[in-house]
Design goal:
CATH superfamily of the largest domain: Bira Bifunctional Protein, Domain 2
Helix content: 25-40%
Largest sheet: 9 strands, mixed
CATH architecture of the largest domain: 2-Layer Sandwich
Strand order of the largest sheet: 3-10-11-21-16-15-14-12-13
Number of domains: 5
CATH class of the largest domain: Alpha Beta
Structural class: alpha+beta
Shape: globular
Number of helices: 24
Strand content: 15-25%
Distance between the termini: 42 Å
């Protein structure tokens, strides 16, 4: 979840999953530059980069300094009395020119940081979209008559149909195409499962409270909003202060409760609504807790993601699949996160739909037989090297990205390509879609590579799909907790002698030394590569102890010789037993749908040009209703013909509505354009009708008995509008658009 803190890194926090221990971050200044570029990078790759925000701030500071110096010179000339009127006038004109230059520099900076007219236009567009969506009942706040509950929304009739169409296409594009095993697991999950995954311990956000009213806020949101507002609105912000705020934004995910609290106090951040002081930050678990059964003794949680149900069923799914790898399991379902302060409409909610895939693969062979099908795709990619160097996302060919190692392996690359095709076929604008690689401070220590499909909307770049190579972390965690080995087998044609690395931590000695942190030290030791383990073995044999970085603790610890045994052992094996790696694409369906709403929305003038009409340009694939049927006038003959057409459309499985209201045909067109209906059938005779295409407003004339066939071809993508326009005559008549 698509939509990223711990798994908080998935949808509606982000889209990654499970507890994500952090690796050591790169230098703060480097990450700050990367974060700033992520926020302000352009939507297309350009050959000539625009001036950076830092350069624009320096230019503004220089021009403001020049204005101040010239103003002082003018005052001196006037006060001295020795200057001629011509000299004073010339100095004043020079001051005016410098002020004009300073004003222009300020406007360029405003545009760069997203304030000013551009930001106002985005807000205006967003309001137009949201107002239309709520008025046409695509979605509305839940429990509206009781003033609603933040973070909960109801989908109305057209919204339900769009969502159903998106999910239907997801199943077709992924589950059917890849022969995936679809499962449906309960929303209520026993505590032991989520303890194994790490959610009980780490699925948290840091929260602060208004000390007088008790109102709760996410601590990182308050700090983030403060820094962004300063960067966007304070054009005279000193460069060193701007750098500091960028550094805070870059490292925000890694701040401890103490560091967050210190920054909140340093900047004087108070409760947004009351201006009251805030408490110190403290962790709040985002899962909804419940009890299973009447005694209350069996603790459960509403699942924060759907994936754990797939992992715990791996053994049975592997057997069902004939004990063959690779294979993928998929699940669509509701997930729940008790967000501290939900905002941004459908983008951050407390109950949402996830569609997740867990593709199990041999860790020693991550090639994919169908990678060639997507290798030539070219789209915006934002690898970590570009982020850290301050560059923008660039157009890259997927095949080249994999061959150069930018994308870790073919299977991960294959799913990145399939996600791109899925989103663009839904109607997401290719120019506002990019794939961003996780920075080092975002990556869990066990992850091989992670990419997010980010879509730009009025809120900025929004993570909608997470595509991660999570190695074998999840299956190993559940194997250890449950005692059931979740492994795969590769049988050899004849026995092989193999040399295996054996790491045996002494849990007793580690427990005495590290107490509550013992488990994290053990996991880090067991996760060592062969190279790391042999280097440790050499150090322990020569010195008796060595320093060891434990990423989950965020510090080095001292390991002594008695705490761990490391050896290479030779064995004869008849089969290889291993824990599969997992490639996980995770889709935040609500986020994708909201971005689709924005990307599909536009306005056009009515025929009289007295008003602007709203239109959603949904592709037929996702449109809530595929076509409308309009009798041109109230007439029994036309009504009967409309019923015949409606019956044929129903038989063909095409969603439609009949509109026989007395308003003009143009108004009826406009009304259905506003909910994104791609085709309108106008009955103006008993033998033939016109079919109108929504965006071009072009019409063709078709026989009544052919209507269902033509509309079916168009809605299922078998023919394009250009194709049918060549087959059937164009129509221009009195019932043409009157909007």
């Amino acid at each position: 979840m698509v939509f990223m803190r711990f798994r908080p890194q998935l949808i509606f926090a982000s889209l990654s999953r499970s507890p994500k221990p952090r690796t050591s971050p790169p230098p703060a200044a480097t990450l700050a530059a990367a974060a700033a570029r992520r926020r302000h990078s352009t939507t297309t790759a350009v050959s000539m980069a625009a001036p950076s925000e830092d350069a624009l701030r320096r230019a503004l500071a220089e021009r403001q300094a020049a204005v101040d110096a010239q103003a002082e010179a003018v005052r001196a000339l006037k006060a001295g009395g020795g200057a001629s009127k011509a000299e004073v006038d010339a100095a004043v004109e020079a001051l005016k020119a410098l002020k004009v230059e300073a004003g222009a520099a300020a406007r360029r900076l405003q545009q760069s940081v997203g304030a000013g007219p551009g930001g106002a236009a985005r807000e205006e567009m967003r309001q137009a979209v949201v107002n239309t969506l709520e008025r046409k009942l695509f979605y509305i706040p839940s429990f509206k008559i009781y003033r609603g509950v933040a973070g909960l929304y109801d989908y109305g009739p057209p919204g339900c149909r769009v969502k159903a169409n998106v999910l239907s296409f997801w199943r077709q594009h992924f589950v059917l195409e890849e022969n995936m095993l679809e499962v449906d697991c309960p929303c209520v999950t026993p505590e032991v499962v989520l303890k194994a995954s790490g959610h009980v311990e780490k699925f948290t956000d840091l929260m602060v409270k208004d000390e007088k009213t008790g109102t709760c806020y996410r601590a990182d949101h308050l700090l983030k909003d403060f820094c962004k507002e300063k960067l966007e609105k304070d054009l005279n912000l000193p460069q060193e202060k701007a750098d500091e705020f960028k550094r805070v934004l870059a490292l925000l995910d890694d701040f401890s409760a103490e560091e967050l609290g210190a920054k909140i106090k340093e900047y004087g951040i108070v409760a947004p609504d009351t201006k009251n002081p805030l408490s110190d930050p403290y962790p709040f678990n985002l899962m909804f807790q419940t009890s299973i059964g009447p005694t209350g003794l069996s603790v459960g949680y509403m699942r924060p993601e759907t994936a754990q149900g797939i992992f715990v069923n791996f053994k049975d799914l592997y057997y069902y699949n004939g004990q063959k790898l690779p294979f993928a399991a998929a699940q669509i379902g509701q997930a729940f996160r008790n967000e501290i302060s939900p905002r941004q409409g459908l983008l951050r909610v407390r109950e949402f739909t996830l569609a997740e895939i867990e593709h199990f693969v041999d860790p020693e062979d991550k090639s994919h037989p169908k990678f060639v099908d997507v290798a030539d795709l070219e789209f915006l990619m934002f690898p970590r090297e570009l982020q850290l160097s301050g560059d923008s996302a660039k157009l890259m060919k997927l095949g080249e990205a994999v061959s150069k190692g930018t994308v870790n392996n073919e299977t991960l690359g294959y799913f990145i390509g399939r996600v791109y095709l899925f989103l663009t076929r839904l109607g997401i604008d290719k120019g506002r879609l990019r794939f961003r690689q996780h920075l080092p401070n975002e990556m869990a220590h066990y992850a091989a590579d992670c990419w997010d499909a980010e879509i730009e909307c009025s809120y900025g770049w929004i993570e909608c799909v997470g595509i991660a190579d999570r190695s074998a972390y999840d299956l190993k965690a559940h194997s250890e907790k449950s005692g059931v080995p979740l492994v795969a087998h590769e049988k050899f044609s004849k026995p092989r002698e193999v040399e295996k690395l054996v790491i045996v931590p002494s849990k007793k000695d580690l427990g005495l030394a590290f107490k509550g942190n013992q488990k994290m030290v053990v996991e880090a030791l067991e996760a060592m590569s062969e190279k790391e383990a042999m280097e440790m073995k050499t150090a322990l044999e020569s010195k008796g102890e060595t320093s060891f970085k434990v990423c989950t603790l965020g510090k080095d610890v001292v390991i002594t010789k008695k705490m761990v045994s490391i050896s290479m052992e030779k064995k004869m094996e008849h089969q290889r037993v291993f824990t599969p790696s997992v490639i996980e694409p995770s889709f935040g369906i609500g986020r994708i749908i909201y971005c689709l709403f924005e990307h599909s929305f536009y306005t056009r003038p009515s025929k009289s040009e007295e008003e602007q009409l709203n239109v959603f340009r949904f592709p037929p694939l996702v449109a809530p209703i595929k076509c409308t049927v309009f009798p041109l006038v109230k007439n029994q003959e036309f009504d009967d013909a409309a019923k015949v057409i409606a019956k044929a459309l129903t038989t063909a499985g095409i969603s439609h509505i009949i509109d026989t209201t007395a308003i003009s045909i143009g108004r009826r067109y406009a009304r259905t354009d506003e909910i994104g209906v791609p085709f309108a059938v106008t009955v103006d005779s008993a033998t033939s009708v016109t079919i109108r295409e929504r965006d071009s407003k072009e019409q063709i004339r078709v026989g009544i008995d052919e209507v269902a066939s033509v509309v079916k071809q168009l809605t299922e993508g078998q023919s394009s509008w250009a194709d049918v326009s060549k087959t059937y005559p164009a129509h221009v008549g009195p019932q043409g658009d009157q909007e």
